[in-house]
Amino acid sequence: MQRKLIYKILLILGVVGLFSYYAFPLNKRINLGLDLQGGMHLLLKVDTTHLDGQAKLDACDRAVEVIRNRIDEFGVRETSIQKQGEDEIVVQLPGVTDRERAIDIIGKTAMLEFKVVSDDPVKLKDALAGNIPAGYELKYTLDDNMPLLVEKKAALVGDTLTNAEVRFDQSQFNEPIVSLKFNAEGAKKFAEVTAANVGKSLAIVLDGKVQSAPRIREAIPSGEAVITGRFDADTAQDLALVLRVGALPAPMHIEEERTVGPLLGQDSINKGVKACLIGCALVFIFMFGYYLLAGFISDIALLLNLLIILGGLGLLPALFPGVSATLTLPGIAGIALSLGMAVDANVLINERIREELALGRNLRTAIGNGYSRAFSAIFDSNLTTLIAAFLLFQFGTGPIRGFAVTLTIGLLASMFTAIIVTRVIFELLLNLGWIKSLPMLKFIGETKLDFISKRKIFYALSIILIVMGVFSYIQKGPAAYGIDFAGGQLQEYSFKNIPSIDKVRGVLKDISLSDATIQQFKDNPRVVLIRTSEDKNQILTNKLKEVFPDEDIQILKIERVGPVAGKNLKTKAILALFWSLIGILIYVSFRFKHINFAIAGVSALLHDVLVSMGFLVITNRQIDLLSVTAFLTIAGYSINDTIVIYDRVRENSRLYRKLSLRELINLSVNQTLGRTLLTSGVTLLVVIAFLFYGGEVLSNFAFALFVGFIAGAYSTVFIASPLVLAWSRKGAK
């Protein structure tokens, strides 16, 4: 056996061992995203408008520190808290299901102030009549809504607080109270304030709200105080927590929230894994059934491809400690999709081997030539898809980044397994003398169709489809977008039985949400999705449980996106699409030495994205972040098909120098037609599996891919190739 072959075998065994180590056991090596295990994703914006200079620059960093301390005290593990930009913070809380409590702990500014209350009843009456004296403000206590006239300037603030803990009062009610303790400086100041205001009340104000206002009976030199307020134990504990770790340097508000309940997380895992297994099984069966032994070897490569993806997710954090590789629901789709796309490389190689055998080459030569001739197309097509994946990671958030990571690992793995692993297996079998021939089935014979002559018909068809989509998009306006881009809030509930939509609508009307939209899913009518313009989730949930007492209502997910975040997400989506087109344009121009090829290819993939987007709108599906993920994937996959034809045109131009460009294009399209239909069809098997079995979370994503991949196969043959000729003629003029 050749020494070079032995080294390759050892390399492959080393790769298998390395990635097996980092892949198993799966539950320890790979972190699940929030969409699979449940939890909260928050994008917080720090309000620094009232700050200036150095204080504004340090505010966000200090806020990150305070939030981290609060969450650590709260007891949530494996959290992610990261600064984003100058004034935004991304917080991820795996497994957290008590939404209201988590938001309260994270978002509470915890600005503690002690303010002296005026004991002049005349001034209070004037204030109640609207004439508030200078230097005072009118406040109301939280527990009994009693009016208080308090001094604007705080007598003492909470920056000298050293501890806050829960105790229970000694009354018959034994209610929880929050005990405060100051440092020496604070204790001295507190003693001076209480000594100077004996007989008056001292309002304890937290974030502008009066928690309590006890009367000062005597000076308090101990530096201790208590906050009462008819708390329950959890509320008191949370209040003590935020006071103990310190106040935020500036107020914050939630720009984006995505909360996934554990029931939906488990359901997403079940459906995602089921769809993935079905899709992959269909791919394996087809490859083996169609290419026989060569297909079986391809299936071995695809299994190794899957191992490398799983191992890669476990290996990334080890290689790059700052990188968190998590498996998300779109990531599961990315695994299956990358396997479907990996078939492309194997089909290219097998079809090239078939061509070489048809030319009379012996088996060893045919295999060697097949790999060398397929390499450039495999390299170019995978690299252009990697451009799209990189931009998905750059501009995406959360699950979309998970999809980009798995797709990137999958693409790199497919190049390794298709180019190296399968070839080593072939060489090993040849050296052992175990194969003498390589039979394959062939559904699509040689064609000699004149695709260029029919180009105007297909141009017209494409224009009609795009215009229909654009018209529908304009007609729907903002309603075409999901909350990712339009803003708003949606909440998804699960009922024990199929609920009456009219009854649900009545609940919304009762709590002044009559403008809300309600959606019921055909595949699971017990699930109801409600989209509102404001956050009244707690009121809505309580009201639904009141009206449907026996339905065991569960919150599956809550998503909220503010107008600023929605605008930013839309801007990022547009930038991702724009830069992916520019990146592909530059790369294809460089590789094929002609801008005509690049413009035609980018025009075709833009066509595919517009057709896919149009079908989403026409079928009343909303455009969201996962849709944009699909569009970028379509762009990468579409250029794959186109580059294979371009590569064949480049090769044929060297072989048939007397043929015109029109003849070269027609010849190349006919030669690669079988491969175009095969790879698109096999990849569609995976997409169809996710469309039917992936659940409603991936429904829009899978549908967009389904339309886009069909459009991609169509545009490769009928749009991109003729456009090369059209642009070349323009260039010649």
Descriptive account of the structure:
Helices cover about 60% and strands about 15% of the residues. It has 4 domains: about 20-105, Alpha-Beta Plaits (2-Layer Sandwich), CATH 3.30.70.3400; about 110-245, Gyrase A, domain 2, CATH 3.30.1360; about 260-475 and about 565-730, Multidrug efflux transporter AcrB transmembrane domain (Multidrug efflux transporter AcrB transmembrane fold, Up-down Bundle), CATH 1.20.1640.10; about 490-560, Alpha-Beta Plaits (2-Layer Sandwich). Strand 3 and strand 4 (about 90-95) form a beta hairpin. Strands 3-4-2-14-19-16-18-17 form an 8-stranded antiparallel β-sheet. Strands 8-5-11-12 form a 4-stranded antiparallel β-sheet. The chain has a 3-stranded antiparallel β-sheet with strand order 9-10-13. Helix 12 (about 365-395) packs antiparallel against helix 20. The protein has about 725 residues and is of the alpha+beta class. The mean pLDDT is about 85. It contains 22 helices and 19 strands.
Entry summary:
With about 725 residues, the chain is α+β, with helices and mostly antiparallel strands. It has four domains: about 20-105, Alpha-Beta Plaits (2-Layer Sandwich); about 110-245, Gyrase A, domain 2 (2-Layer Sandwich), CATH 3.30.1360; about 260-475 and about 565-730, Up-down Bundle (Multidrug efflux transporter AcrB transmembrane fold); about 490-560, Alpha-Beta Plaits.
Give the tags:
alpha+beta, 4 domains, Multidrug efflux transporter AcrB transmembrane fold, Alpha-Beta Plaits, Gyrase A, domain 2, 8-stranded antiparallel β-sheet, 733 residues
